[in-house]
Design goal:
alpha+beta; seven-stranded mixed β-sheet; binds uridine-5'-diphosphate; five-stranded parallel β-sheet; Rossmann fold; 3 domains
Length: 387
């Protein structure tokens, strides 16, 4: 009945479902354990009519025109440039830390001297990961690096990951580099926008095709089996001879045979407030205060003219597979030790010719939305174009 089973209805699964259905006329079954499509990009109107992101703020940004154009088939875009402030020593300053943050937090003569040195050493407009800046041999710049490390990174990272910045892949803190610029935007990508009718609508449009069936509220293990010896697959008790595209937890697909990969979870606490606006920018980070890492106010994203406002606070927490309050694996934890486990899973996966792993959880990569769309399109072109 189906040519392809796709497990997971986030971007990885939905893009591949759309491509296989529309380009290759394949019959696709998409299975997701949640009651909705869209994975963690899912957004919805809350009880007060405000468009909220149920699994935390998602801001689309990319330099990849083909990704932007591809998604543009499923949505109109509204230009949106994300800005974040960090609450540091009682002030709110731009994050990533930039020249404006420098002048706000340090005495003027020191800030002016540091600015000159930064520009001379790296060049205006350059981005320097904090762990790199800390390696520097100049005493004044080293002072600045340690200051930024202490004020912006070390406590936020302790909350977010339960680790020091140097204990996780440099790629993680490298996402928010020190920016030698007066540009206060969080991203500098060429295309920055939000879907005019929300993310969920993109997924509805992508999956609305006669060749695509979507089965929600269904854990894949309840309807599907993969024999780890022979590679044989069964769907609802019958032999399945097609392809499997898996976007879930790689260790779950392979029955944790090489151990559990660790993930980090979050508890999102939403609040609705009677005021028109709660904070001056979409997101305020609190590296050193409170138990949450950041507060996001959704009206800055949705641009709705509506009374009241809705915000969300993000409380990082340990991931616990069997605890329904803690079992959403938002982030793989990127350490050397975990990489070794992942490599064993990836090598094992090679044996299964009809199984393709795609996505943040299946590949254990810190993919942004544009990355995963690009990755799914590349997988389609490389593996399924002639399928
Ligand atoms: N980070 C930090 N302080 C900040 C912002 C980010 O220490 O104010 C670090 C932290 O380790 C975080 C990482 O940079 O996990 C990546 O931040 P990003 O905002 O990209 O995370 P995401 O939005 O994906 O959760």
């Amino acid at each position: 009945m189906f040519d392809t089973i796709i497990i997971g209805a986030g971007f990885a699964g939905s893009v591949l479902a759309e491509r296989l259905a529309t380009q290759n006329n394949k019959r696709v079954l998409v299975i997701d354990k949640r009651r909705h499509i869209g994975g963690n990009c899912y957004d919805r109107y809350d009880d007060h009519g405000i468009l909220i992101h149920q699994y935390g703020p998602h801001l689309f940004h990319t330099d990849n025109q083909s990704v932007f154009d591809y998604l543009g088939q499923f949505t109109q875009w509204r230009p949106y440039q994300h800005e974040v402030l960090g609450f540091i020593d009682g002030q709110k300053v731009p994050v990533p830390f930039n020249l404006n943050s420098l002048h706000a937090l340090l005495p003027e003569s020191l800030a002016a001297s540091l600015e000159k040195k930064l520009i001379a050493r790296f060049g205006y407009g350059m981005k320097v990961p904090i762990l790199e800046l800390r390696e520097i041999d100049d005493a004044e710049l080293k002072f600045l690096a340690d200051f930024i490390y202490e004020k912006i990174f070390v406590n936020y990272t302790a909350k977010q990951w339960g680790k020091l910045p140097e204990e996780i892949s440099a790629e993680v803190t490298g996402r928010v580099p020190v920016f030698i610029s007066r540009d206060n935007r969080y991203f500098q990508d060429k295309y920055q926008a939000v879907p005019a009718l929300g993310y969920t609508r993109i997924f509805e449009t992508m999956l609305d095709h006669a060749n695509i069936s979507v089965m929600l509220n269904t854990h894949f293990k309840d309807v599907f089996t993969l024999d780890l010896e022979s590679g044989a697959m069964q769907l609802m008790g019958s032999e399945f001879e097609g392809e499997l595209i898996f976007t879930g937890l790689i260790d779950e697909l392979f029955e944790r045979r090489f151990g559990e990969l660790p993930y980090r979870s979050l508890d999102f606490q939403f609040e609705h407030l009677p005021c028109a606006q709660y904070q001056e920018k979409t997101t305020i980070n609190y590296p050193n205060d409170y138990d949450f890492t950041r507060i996001t106010e959704f009206k800055h994203i949705s641009q709705q003219s509506i009374a009241g406002t809705s915000i969300v606070k993000e409380f990082p927490q340990a991931f616990e597979r069997d605890n329904p309050l803690k079992n959403i694996p938002y982030y793989p934890i990127f350490t050397e030790e975990n990489k070794a486990i992942l490599d064993r899973y990836l090598a094992f996966a090679e044996k299964f010719e009809r199984v393709t792993l795609v996505g943040r959880l299946a590949e254990n990569r810190y993919y942004d939305m544009d990355d995963i769309v690009a990755r799914a399109l590349a997988v389609f072109a490389d593996k399924f174009a002639d399928y």
